[in-house]
């Protein structure tokens, strides 16, 4: 479910989605169009907003199909990035995923002698 959607004229968009199935999850999408004409950025951001608004009904949390939200959201992230890239020579798209299990403690535990911080490079 879409819980936040904001843009600014400098070429930045933020959308946040929250799901409760199969477990509590928040996904934040940030798109920054770097360089170029601000008028083009405003037009592009408006088209991305429409894309998100038009898709939000299919991303609503379904009682029996939590994965449908995940795949639908990842497809939407890709469409938004591609839309921004069509009109901007340099696009930075960032996705933050907060994923928690209701039954687990909220603080990660490290094994003795190991760090609790993990970095993944793609």
Short summary of the structure?
The chain has 122 residues and is an alpha+beta fold. It is built from two helices and four strands; from the N terminus they run E-E-E-H-H-E. The protein is elongated, with a radius of gyration of 17 Å.
Tell me what you see in this structure.
By secondary structure, this protein is of the alpha+beta class. Helices cover 33% and strands 27% of the residues. It has 2 helices and 4 strands. The protein has a 4-stranded antiparallel β-sheet, with helices on one face. Strand 2 and strand 3 form a beta hairpin. Helix 1 runs antiparallel to helix 2. The protein is elongated and about 50 Å long. The two termini are 27 Å apart.
Please give the structural blueprint.
Blueprint: E1 2-8, E2 12-19, E3 25-33, H1 38-55, H2 66-87, E4 91-99
Antiparallel strand pairs: 1-2, 2-3, 3-4
Helix pairs in contact: 1-2
Which descriptors would you attach to this protein?
122 residues; alpha+beta; four-stranded antiparallel sheet; 2 helices; 4 strands; 27% strand; elongated; disordered C terminus
Uncertain residue segments: 64-68, 109-122
Which radius of gyration do the C-alpha atoms yield? 17 Å
Question: Please, how many helices?
Answer: 2
Strand order of the largest sheet: 1-2-3-4
Mean pLDDT across all residues, rounded? 77
Biggest sheet: strands, sense, closure?
Answer: 4 strands, antiparallel
CA-to-CA gap between the ends? Answer: 27 Å
Helix/strand-derived category reads alpha+beta
Helix content: 25-40%
* Helix-strand pattern: EEEHHE
Overall shape: it is: elongated
What's the total number of strands? 4
Beta fraction: 25-35%
